Structures are given as structure tokens and as C-alpha cells.
Amino acid sequence: MSDLQRELDAIAAEMGFSGVVRVDRADRVEVAKAYGLAHRGYEIPNAVDTRFAIASGTKGLTALTVVSLVEDGLLELSTTARSLLGDDLPLIGGDVTVEHLLAHRSGIGDYLDEETDVDVDDYLMPVPVHELATSEEYLAVLDGHAPKFAPGGRFAYCNSGYVVLALVAERVSGVPFHDLVVQRVCRPAGLRDTEFLRSDELPGGVALGYLAVDGGWRSNVFHLPVRGSGDGGVYTNVADIRALWSAFFAGRIVSPAWVTEMVRARSDAPSESKRYGLGFWLHASTDAVILEGMDAGVSFRTMHDPRSETTSTVVSNTTAGAWPLARFLAELDH
């Protein structure tokens, strides 16, 4: 057993971690280990190939889907959302572009505004969660939110913006967004275990999300949309996350020129101690690129350093379970 494995085991034991950790250095898997339970009722343990929800980690796949449409000439970064929304979502201004949405600089109102005091373990959806299964059904939660500032004015992380991107991508391509992600990201990247699943019909090999309630544990099935959209909801495993990074930086999803453009910083985000490109968080001072997400019963962080070809991924089926291990690995590498 490596020293790194011992340290990870100690942190995992101390905090009762439930999830999977994987560390890759170049072509070598240095660590891949599962902890805790995928299903507490039946005491089914997590395995290294268990699939987990990754919440806002999904935004990277959404951005890649949209940029692939730009590369194919179906969209431009300067395309306005209004040109595809028609009469829908009238509070989104006519000058909000695809680039504004990708970079979280659109200023549109957010149905889940993280600049407010949000408790992710609360019941946050304004409509019954079973009514949110397709991109078009999300119009019910996107509508009625006034703009916060003029497009391009500043960085403001915006979940609504990425659902709007899903709508834009679906309408310009004529392909349902969930299928579009599979066609334009998962297949070219070789991701065999990554897809938008319904939370009420999860197959075997998928971890249920749990949140701590009154000294016990409760499933997150009533907390999140039954099927996600552009801002979250993909299920995947750590092997596919590693494959995603490899394919992304090899130019197999979008061209190397677009890879460079997507990881070019558009904003500083001092409150997060990071920067932001197009769909990806960027380390504050290195070339490392990050995807992360948190929802009720979900926490996820993966960081890839293209210079050292090092990837560290932590995914958990509890609300904040990933963070201690993710912080440890981030400090170790930087």
C-alpha cells in the first residue's frame, strides 16, 4: 500500500467517507478505491466502477456540447439566446449571447441563485421534481427571474444559464439535449458509463444520494429534478472522468484550438479562489482545470493538470463528503 493510499484511508475513516477516489499520473492509476455504501437500505457497498451523480460537473459536458455545435457552424459564440428562444423566457435580454452564458457573464436571473444564502439540502425546486425531465419542461422554473446586471458586466455563477444553453443546443440541432451530450461528448470521448439517468429508475451499479437528517440518512430523490439538464444531473464513474480529461485535451471532442479557448480565463472568481473559462473552473495560479459540483446528496471534484498529466477525482453520494479528500489532493499537487 502506498503512502498516499494510507493517508487517504485515514481521512476517509475519520470522516466516514462514502464514495470513490481515483488518482492518475500519466498512464498509471496510482489510487482507485471505493468507500462506504451505494445503497444504505440494502447495504450495497460502493465499488470503483459505481456511477454517481456529479451535479454541476455536468456543466463541462454541456459546454463541450455547445462548443462542438459552434465548431460545426450551427452556432456562434455571438449567437443570441433570444434568436432561439423565440417568445420563451421574455426577461432574458436580446443581447445575451452563447459566450455570455458559457462564461457565467450573462447577468440573467437564476432559478437557483448561489449568490444568495442557499441550503442545498433544502427542497429548492419550485415545481414538483417529477415535472422536470426534459429541457422544455425546465421553462417553468427558468421563467420570471429578472436580470441581475447587463450581459458581460461581471462573473456570476448561473445555473439557469446552463439550462438555457441546453435549450439553445436542443433547438438549433433538433436533437434532445440528453441524446446530444451522448452523441457529441460521450461517444467521441469513449465514455461508456456516462448519461442522464432518472432518479426514480436508477439501474444497478449506481449510488443513491443521501443527506443527513435528524441523525439518520435520507435519499435525495425528492430534492432534485427527476432528470437533469444543462446545469447538472449526469451520472458517471471515475474511469469515465479520467477518459473525459484525456479525450478533451487530446482534441477528440472539440479541436485543440477550441480546447485552448475553453480553458482561457474569462473571469477571476476570488470568492472561489479560482478563475473561470468556458464551462470549466481554472486553478488560480496553475494550468490545472477543474470540474466540481454539489447538490443534496451529491459532491464531486475532479482536477486535471495537463502539464503533469495528473488527474485527481473524488465523488461522494453525500452532500459534502467529497471536500476533505479533494482539498487534501489539491494541496498535495499544488
Strand content: 15-25%
Number of strands: 15
How does the helix and strand content classify structurally? alpha+beta
Question: What general form does the structure show?
Answer: globular
Main beta sheet strand tally, sense and closure = 8 strands, antiparallel
Main sheet strand line-up? 2-1-15-14-13-12-11-10
Low-pLDDT sequence parts:
none
Q: How much helical structure, as a percent, in the residues?
A: 25-40%
Order of helices and strands: HEEEEEHHHHHHEEEEHHEEEEEEH
- Rg: 19 Å
C-alpha termini separation? 23 Å
Tally of contiguous helical segments: 10
Mean pLDDT: 97
Which properties best describe this structure?
10 helices; 334 residues; eight-stranded antiparallel β-sheet; 20% strand; alpha+beta
What can you tell me about this protein's structure?
Helix 2 runs parallel beside helix 6 and helix 2 crosses helix 7. A hairpin with a 4-residue loop joins strand 10 and strand 11. This protein is an alpha+beta fold and 334 residues long. Strands 2-1-15-14-13-12-11-10 form an 8-stranded antiparallel sheet, sandwiched between helices. Strands 5-9-6 form a 3-stranded antiparallel sheet. Strands 3-4 form a two-stranded antiparallel ribbon.
